[in-house]
Amino acid sequence: MAFATETVYGLGGNAFNTQAVAGIFEAKQRPHFDPLIVHLADTTSLPLVVNHVPEVAQKLIDRFWPGPLTLVLPKQPELSDLVTAGLPSVAVRIPAHPLARELIRQSGVPIAAPSANPFGRISPTTAQHVIDFLEGRIDAVLDGGNCDVGIESTVLSCSDSGEVRLLRPGGLTIEEIEEVVGPIVRQQPTILDQNGPQSSPGMLAQHYAPRTPLQIVTDWPQTEDDLALGVLSFTPIENPERYGQVEVLSESGSLPEATAHFFAALRRLDESPVTRIFAKAFPEVGLGRALNDRLHRAAAGTSHSSH
Ligand code: TXA
Ligand code: MG
C-alpha cells in the first residue's frame, strides 16, 4: 500500500513479511541491490530491527525524530536480507506525517517503504502522482495531501566510533545536523558511478529522471518565442513568455517552498509539450544542496534519451 509521509509518498509493506517486501521490489521494478528504509511509529520498536544504537545516533534521534532523517544502523539478524540488500546495516526512520505514523501503529509492524515511484523516475508528492505511475501495480494509496517537505529524507550512517557520514542529502539540512553532532563526513552529494563502490546502493548517478531531456545551465537560453523549451526556475525569470512552459518554484526565493514544489513542477514540465527542459543550480546551502543533488541526477538520467 502506498501512503503519504512528510517527505514523499512511500510504498509500504510489512518489513518481516518477505513476500510483501518482494512485492514492493516487483511493483517498483527496483533492483534487489538497493535496500529499503524501515519506518517505525516510535522508538520503542527500534530493537525489532536495530541491533544497537550508537551514541551519536541517539543524539540525532532525540533531536530530529519524527522527521525527514533516515539513520543507517547495525541491523538485527532476524530482519530479512531482502530489506537490507544483504548489508549488515538497516536504514530506519520515524516519519512525522500523522497518517504515516497511524498506519504503522495500526499495522503493528515495522513498514519497509521506498518512495512510491517506478525505479529511477520522479518521486511522488501527491496521491495522484502515485496513481499516475503505479496504477494497476498496487492495491491502494492513503491520500495525505501534498507532502510538506517534498524531497526524500536525509540518509546518514552512524558508527560506534562516532563517525556520521552523509549518504544522501535530503529534507533535513547538513547545517541542522552539524549543529547537533559537529562536522560530518560529506560524501559528494552527486554522481556515483553505477558500477563503482556503493556505500549507499541507491545513490546512482541517474535517478529522479523525467523523460524529457533536462540540462543544467548558468544562463537561460536566449531565444525568441521557443515553445519547445521548458524552464524550471527557483525564482521568477524575465520574459517568461519566450518559453513554452515556465515553472517557478518560489516567488519569494524560499528554499523550503521550492523544495516542496520541486518534484511536482518537474512532472508538469515532463508532461507538457516542451521537448527540452532547462534548469539552473540552486544556491549550495541548506535545502539547496539536496535540490542540486536531485537536479544533477535528473539531468544525468535524461542525458541518454537525447540522442
Ligand atoms: O523520505 C524518504 O526517505 C522516503 C519516504 C517514503 O520515507 N523513502 C525513500 O526511500 O526515499 P528510497 O528507497 O527511495 O531511498 C532509500 C535510500 C536509498 O538511497 C538506499 O540505497 C538507502 O536509502 N539505504 C537503504 N538502506 C541502506 C543501508 N543499509 N545502507 C546504506 N544505504 C541504505
Ligand atoms: Mg526513491
Main sheet properties: 8 strands, mixed
Sequence of strands across the biggest β-sheet: 3-7-4-6-5-9-10-11
Strand content: 15-25%
Question: What's the CATH class of the largest domain, please?
Answer: Alpha Beta
What's the tally of helices?
9
Q: SS-based structural class?
A: alpha/beta
Bound molecules: threonylcarbamoyladenylate, magnesium ion
Report the count of strand segments. Answer: 15
CATH level-3 fold name of the largest domain = DHBP synthase
What's the number of structural domains?
Answer: 2
Order of helices and strands: EEEHEHHEHEHEHEEEHEEEEHEH
Shape: globular
Distance between the termini: 37 Å
Name given to the CATH homologous superfamily of the largest domain = DHBP synthase
Portion of residues within helices: 25-40%
* Level-2 CATH architecture of the largest domain: Alpha-Beta Complex
* Unreliable spans: 189-198
The mean pLDDT is 93
Radius of gyration: 19 Å
